[in-house]
User: Which sequence fits this backbone?
């Protein structure tokens, strides 16, 4: 076996002190000794920086492939069921690929994360959206700042040049690392995969021209769907990582499908599991896997209240769920989310289907602050009320995630029959905006700042569930004026991984 | 200190030096053809056959070789190859100002204030909106990799970073108004990119599919990026 090191080799250089003593030079003083120690440390650092890692003789190569595919909502459940079952997943993905070629489904992205076991890899495809976030303020109330901007007493140009830009990547992204066990059939994968999309720009009122024309800045609106999980997979068998309703394209569901494939790389045949270094060392295979299935509905009050006792009854919850699904097909109930979240025992998995809302939280004004809400009693006209133009964009923005997020960490009993799940789910909706007047001009017009209103429902819980059983996780009434109820159902299924015992590294394996 | 380094190099076990060649191929072709070849391109035993098919498609005009950068470096070193163009775009601006010019002053004198001008007074006056700072972005294909070969030169490890960048479009952002409410706009570029950072381990001469992605701005055009790495005996033995 080769044990070659890069560059410097394995032998360490003799220290300067030893060299000095050998050559008969008087031992240095205390101060001198300190200098020598520092010099040796410095030399050591230089050598360490230049040292090469031993060339790897053998290892597993792992390709993690993420496919982002959009399918019609009507057939999504069927795809999810097939891709969720190891026996049918390979055939289902092949069929889905054929559907993509026929145009019945759309392949949004294919990300190939090729690499070595234990090493993180990062792959991204998409656009980079660049947008201004800070502007120079233009305020002619303070006097014409640049002399030549006015003509005949009138401002001719109102400018607010952007001073700072931000860039956001949209499209598909995947960060992953993998650990291979035994003969390469079982791979533990940490994966964080998502899809981000620009969903237009929000105009934020930021000033007025002298003639009353409103001035705006534009803030981008992003939507993202992301899952992060640690899961054990069978090499070459696809797994459904995420299933998202596409908010910007109703009637469409986006499937995130991941496939990990391990291949041996080395002079010797794949006889042993080599020592693994790097981030994936933290990835330890567990014999039990969990698949968490979450259903969310918006249900009219009469249906919700009628079904509630059945949903709370463990013996009848499946029957009530089937009724809800039937009502959803008849469009009498709105099915919001169908989440399939794979995770390993004792590992946290996170699902996010988010629409970002950005809004200004700090505003700069040139005059005294004077806030009043909506059309409420106007304050006395501010004396500085302007005849000039001004531009006061918010100086600080905040972004709130609306949509649904769910995270869970299951513990699984030794026989796989019980799951103890620590979980948290949160739904946030943008309810609208309230206007806050911030200035009144001499002509009586007002300038407003807008602040968003959010509605949220949260559930944090710890549940012990039997394998394959469903439970009513949350029952919320939506805030007025909506009358519907929000019903969230959880089901957990365990799966035993055919884990091959980890072989003892062969004596030749370099340490 | 120098003496120590020399002593260390002298003690190092002599070994043959390998040169590592790196070659990339960026091939553009229709979606159906690209996904049709994907199963073969994923399979290390079939990828050479798939490449030969691609070569035939290129020769027949059914696919296009967009880029094919390559280079060579010594074992244990890094290589960086890039081909493309540089796109400059403004990132900082000065406040818009009227340009006081004799011609515009004459035109302005003809306008009777309060009668014809009003809000549009000076609307036609030239306005300067100078750019003070530019930024440059490389678009095209960039590959960088730290390569390391096995003692027998049969295997290669590459710490790779690949960037494929396109200029997709220019986006307008309002940054001011003229008196007649005409918008002053700045343009900012929207780049599309495909990026990856991976540690690859290959057999010398092996091909590997690094990426399959849609060409921005097209519906059915795909691009494949293929990497090939091989070693040759080079340098001088110590």
Assistant:
């Amino acid at each position: 076996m080769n044990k070659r090191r890069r560059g410097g080799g394995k032998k360490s250089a003799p220290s300067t002190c030893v060299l000095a003593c050998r050559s008969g030079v008087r031992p240095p003083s205390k101060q001198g000794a300190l200098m020598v120690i520092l010099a040796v440390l410095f030399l050591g650092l230089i050598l360490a920086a230049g040292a090469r890692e031993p060339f790897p003789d053998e290892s597993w190569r792992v390709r993690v492939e993420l496919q982002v595919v959009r399918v019609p909502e009507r057939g999504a459940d069927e795809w999810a069921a097939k891709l969720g079952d190891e026996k049918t997943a390979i055939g289902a993905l092949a069929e889905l690929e054929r559907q993509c070629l026929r145009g019945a489904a759309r392949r949004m992205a294919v990300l190939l994360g090729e690499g070595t076991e234990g090493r993180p890899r990062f792959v991204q495809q998409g656009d980079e959206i660049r947008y201004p976030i800070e502007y120079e303020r233009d305020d002619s109330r303070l006097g014409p700042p640049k002399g030549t901007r006015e003509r005949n007493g009138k401002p001719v140009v109102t400018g607010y040049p952007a001073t700072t830009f931000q860039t956001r990547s949209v499209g598909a992204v995947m960060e992953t690392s993998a650990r291979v066990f035994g003969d390469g059939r079982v791979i533990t994968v940490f994966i964080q995969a998502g899809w981000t999309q620009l969903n237009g720009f929000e105009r934020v009122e930021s000033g007025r021209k002298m003639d009353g024309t409103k001035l705006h800045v534009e803030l981008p609106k992003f939507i993202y769907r992301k899952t992060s999980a640690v899961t054990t997979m069978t090499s070459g068998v696809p797994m459904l990582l995420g299933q998202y309703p596409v908010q910007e394209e109703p009637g469409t569901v986006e499937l995130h499908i991941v496939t990990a494939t391990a291949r041996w790389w080395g002079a010797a045949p794949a006889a042993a599991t080599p020592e693994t270094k790097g981030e994936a060392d933290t990835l330890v295979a567990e014999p039990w896997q969990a698949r968490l299935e979450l259903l969310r509905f918006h249900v009219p009050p009469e249906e919700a209240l009628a079904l509630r006792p059945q949903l709370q009854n463990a013996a009848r919850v499946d029957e009530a769920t089937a009724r809800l699904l039937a009502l959803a097909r008849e469009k009498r109930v709105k099915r919001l989310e169908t989440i399939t979240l794979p995770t390993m025992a004792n590992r946290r998995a996170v699902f996010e289907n988010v629409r970002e809302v950005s809004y200004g939280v700090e505003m700069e004004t040139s005059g005294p602050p004077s806030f009043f809400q909506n059309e409420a009693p106007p304050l006395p006209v501010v004396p500085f009320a302007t005849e000039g133009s001004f531009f006061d964009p918010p100086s600080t923005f905040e972004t709130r995630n609306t949509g649904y997020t769910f995270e869970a960490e299951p513990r699984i009993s030794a026989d796989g029959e019980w799951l103890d799940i620590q979980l948290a789910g949160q739904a946030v909706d943008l309810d609208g905006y309230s206007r806050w007047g911030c200035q009144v001009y001499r002509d009586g017009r007002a300038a407003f700042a807008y602040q968003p209103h959010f509605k949220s429902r949260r559930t944090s819980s710890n549940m012990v569930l039997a394998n394959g059983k469903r439970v009513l996780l949350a029952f919320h009434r939506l805030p007025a004026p909506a009358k519907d109820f929000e019903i969230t159902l959880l089901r957990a299924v365990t799966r035993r991984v055919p884990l091959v015992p980890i072989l003892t590294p062969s004596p030749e394996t370099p340490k | 200190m120098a003496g120590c380094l020399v002593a260390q190099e002298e003690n190092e076990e002599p070994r043959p030096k390998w040169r590592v060649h790196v070659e990339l191929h960026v091939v553009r072709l229709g979606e159906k053809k690209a996904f049709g070849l994907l199963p073969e391109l994923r399979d290390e035993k079939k990828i050479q056959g798939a490449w030969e098919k691609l070569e035939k498609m290129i020769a027949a005009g059914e696919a296009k070789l967009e880029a094919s950068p390559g280079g060579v470096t010594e074992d244990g070193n890094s290589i960086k190859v890039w081909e493309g163009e540089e796109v400059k775009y403004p990132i900082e601006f000065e406040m818009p100002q009227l340009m006081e010019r004799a011609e515009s002053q004459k035109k302005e004198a003809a306008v009777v204030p309060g009668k014809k001008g009003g809000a549009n007074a000076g609307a036609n006056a030239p306005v300067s909106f100078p750019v003070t700072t530019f930024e440059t972005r490389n678009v095209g294909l960039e590959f960088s990799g730290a390569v390391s070969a096995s003692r027998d030169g049969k295997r290669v490890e590459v710490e790779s970073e690949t960037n494929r960048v396109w200029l997709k479009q220019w986006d307008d952002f309002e940054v001011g108004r003229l008196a007649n409410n005409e918008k002053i706009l700045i343009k900012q570029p929207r780049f599309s990119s495909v990026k990856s950072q991976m540690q690859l381990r290959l057999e010398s001469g092996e091909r590997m599919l690094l990426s399959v992605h849609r060409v921005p701005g097209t519906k059915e055009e795909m691009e494949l990026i293929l990497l090939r790495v091989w070693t040759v005996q080079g340098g001088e033995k110590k």
User: Anything to note?
Assistant: The helical segments of chain B are 2-11, 31-42, 47-59, 102-110. The radius of gyration of chain B is 28 Å. Chain B touches chain A through 83 residues (CB under 8 Å). The CA atoms of residues 86 and 138 of chain B lie 5 Å apart.
